[in-house]
Amino acid sequence: QVQLVESGGGLVQTGGSLRLACAVSGRTASAPVMAWFRQGPGKEREFVAGVNRSGGWTWYSDSVKGRFTISRDNAKNTVYLQMNSLKPEDTAAYFCAAGVVVGASLESRYDYWGQGTQVTVSS
Q1: What is the pLDDT of residues 16-33, one digit of tens each?
Q2: Beta strands in the chain, from DSSP E residues, in sequence order
């Protein structure tokens, strides 16, 4: 089993920045690919960004490319999502996920999920 706990959400103004963190514990080697998803009000959950085991390969949704950066610190078992130039449409609950498929953007490709952290961007 792998446990994921997100933190760092909050309220920020348009154009501001936030950094989310996902603490990973348990059998981390069984699910080395990490990703962030989000679910806005009245919307389905969508892929945001993913990173491979080493951190050397990242992939993003078009809606956040150039504004968000995913990274990981394997020594601390933590995955980060740096979010810059935030927009009201980025308002959502952000979820950390773990799996084994590099490059995956489908929910079904991820086996473990955190409880989420809320990000609200005011206009």
Answers
A1: 999 999 999 999 888 999
A2: 2-7, 10-13, 18-26, 33-39, 46-51, 58-60, 68-73, 78-83, 92-99, 110-113, 117-122
